[in-house]
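ingest -> fold -> write
write: protein_1
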Amino acid sequence: MIILIDAYNFIKSISAHKFVDDRVIQGWIATFQSYMKLRGNKVILVFDAGPSFYQTRAVLGGVEILYAGHSQTADDLIKIWLERSLGQDILLVTSDRQIRDFGLNLGVVSISSQDFYKVFRSVMEQEEVAQQKFTQTLHKTKVDHGRQDHDLDALMEQASRQLVAGQCKNEYAEPARVRDSAKMSKQDRQLMKKIDKI
């Protein structure tokens, strides 16, 4: 899945700062790099302005960063990107109603910045707890003559990860928007599928 984020909208929606400095941006880029390693989803951050008059693109640790430049806005760039990416598995993250409606008209599922942050934070916390439990449960096994049996170790590691992941999944509540699936609208069902992939 591709998570397309209206970056300034996201950062400003979840923080008390009206001005977003480079340190905050770099912190979020690092956070999304860690997330991508854990979950495998592609993250694209779209910013207004940037280092050039024209649109620029950078990739840092797998996170794609698009700057709109001075000739257009991030909103314009997001709309162009969505039109060019029809049919792909995309989750649009923005609280901008106009962009969300534009995405909806193209069949793109969107989530508000605040709701995405809640789900994202929960996922990252679950991953951290799972990693801690995994570290506590993983034990090396040795066979005769002190040689390590790498196949057995790999099998045990895989089983431990699955066991811990299952336990952690059951320990956390579902996101706030979860309702009886028979009563959910088509849009809400699509959003729930995307949330499960986050």
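write: protein_2
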Amino acid sequence: MLRLILVGLVVLDCVTLVETRAGTVVVLNTVNAGLTGTAIREVREGKLAGHAYKENLFGQAEYESGIIYNISTRALQTNNYVNINDPSAVSTQINSISATDNNRYGGMVYFGNSLVLYRVYGFIRTSGGSYFTIEPSGATRSEVHGLSGDKTVGWFDIGGVRKGFLHQGNSYSTGFTTLEFPGASSTEARGVDGNYVVGNAVIGGVQYGFSYDISTGGYTPYRATGNLDTYFNDINDGMIVGTATSGGQNIPFLMQNGQYEFFSFQGNPSLSASGSSYDNGILAGSYVTSTGETLGYYANVPEPSTSTLIVLSLYLQALLNRSRRLRTK
């Protein structure tokens, strides 16, 4: 059985910068847990949740450890799934952390041995230290991606088809609702806030973000400005956080009331499409360096105003139109 020991944490106030499309510049802070890669999935109340991983010679993740990082104290806490009745858990990812109780979090756990992984299931850790896995009947894989109050969201895979789920309540044997965007070949729930769930759906081969109203059961699809492939990763205080794909580059954004604010790194390295989150003026996620290394980041960003959002949307649209004209010449 593999055991993970983190040898150190490096957090750099880098000279690399994040800049909005309108020119506002904010400092990027890089989080590196000292292994092959570090992925940040969520930020809540000054703490980052994610995982550190080590790759083998073939570029495959050999093992992973869940991490929680305190921004103000720079303290790193490793948190791994523990079940004395099933010691075969070899890797842990943390994808979401409770804003009100940092001892409660969720993610995914890999079961196997040093040679093969044979099960991947989402899990929830309660504030009392108990672990529960999400194992829908017939599912070959599940993942937990969002926590808010007594609500938990994620997705599971049955026969190669992904379906989202919403869990409500304190009993993990009941309270589940399957989420399937109408007409979609794949549905993933990624975040929950109050009465809304956000996630991703593939409809007719096209990638959409979506919101789901828990009270009405209604779904609303979204495509970012410029009709870009759109991924919703989180929702917090009514602000949706996601990533749009343009020209092979992943661009993180904040979206509220249908208006988008986009961010990019100076030098244009690709940002991770699977790890953007926002809380109290902090944008967090993961990016890929020019050498292929995945690192976590967080940056203080201004909350978007309506006027700024409109300018940014028009600016991005102009860039896309210019790019299309150049390609046709």
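write: annotation protein_2
The CA atoms of residues 2 and 90 lie 6 Å apart.
Residues 1-24, 306-320, 322-329 have pLDDT under 50 and may be disordered.
pipeline exit 0
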